[in-house]
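Why do we bother with holo predictions? Because pocket geometry can differ from the apo form. Keep that in mind while you read this record for geranylgeranyl diphosphate.
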Amino acid sequence: MNPTRLNDARSYSLNIPGKRLRPQLLEASARATGNDRAEALAGPSAEAIELIHTYSLIHDDLPAMDDDDLRRGRPTLHVAFDEATAILVGDGLQAKAFELIANDDELSTEQRVRLIARLAKAAGFDGMVGGQGLDIEATNKDLSLDDLKNIHALKTGALITAALVMGGIVGNATDAQLATLETVGEKIGLAFQIIDDVIDVRSDSSTLGKTAGKDAAAGKTTYVALMGVETAQTLAMELYDEALALIADWDSSADSLRALLGKMVKRDR
Ligand code: GRG
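The structure, written out:
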């Protein structure tokens, strides 16, 4: 028997593309290593990280989590189909991500194992899933700035950092380059999340004039609630500047990475 409904739901989730920042980051980072072939080789790993991201959004939208009806301007997967199907699509996309890298015979076995290990760590208990767990526990609690940074470093930052490091692995980056990419990821991941909070407040017309936003209304501590819109925006730009400074002496191969880091903080969606 062919699971038609599951296949339809999988197509639905993949046919509403988002900004594709993580695959673009992975490809730009591969190129930034200065290895001419790296960007062309990065395709399957880039696809894999976007599948992990897509799965995380599908599960995050479920009634047991954020209970959202809309994602990327369309009904969320569990609304368009049903909860069981949405859980299965998320599970299937996660498994598919690792299959894509394992079967990528353009890369060496060592590269594949390193990519799989890095993506698994970023997606799992020590990364996105762990951060989501902390985020759920923190709902309706007062958090310090350090608590908030720790949650987001895992929930959002881990996958963004993995994109950069995985690009480095595809490009056979040196240990020094990999360490730099790791730190760039930590800084831009945090900046990205702060800007997300700023966008949340600016786009939530119900909270005009207040420092709230949809997330704050859902009992979540946000950067904007802790420090106000202006300071949050300034902090994000400082982190972006610090990230750029780390790769200031990289040659023009890093230009697309520099441009992308800018896009991640100077965005309105
Ligand atoms: C359910 C295991 C599990 C994890 C969920 C990433 C995540 C953890 C939840 C997403 C909640 C959220 C909206 C966080 C804010 C930052 C963020 C990840 C925004 C969405 O990423 P974009 O802007 O999305 O890259 P698009 O739609 O462009 O792909």
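The chain has one domain: 4-265.
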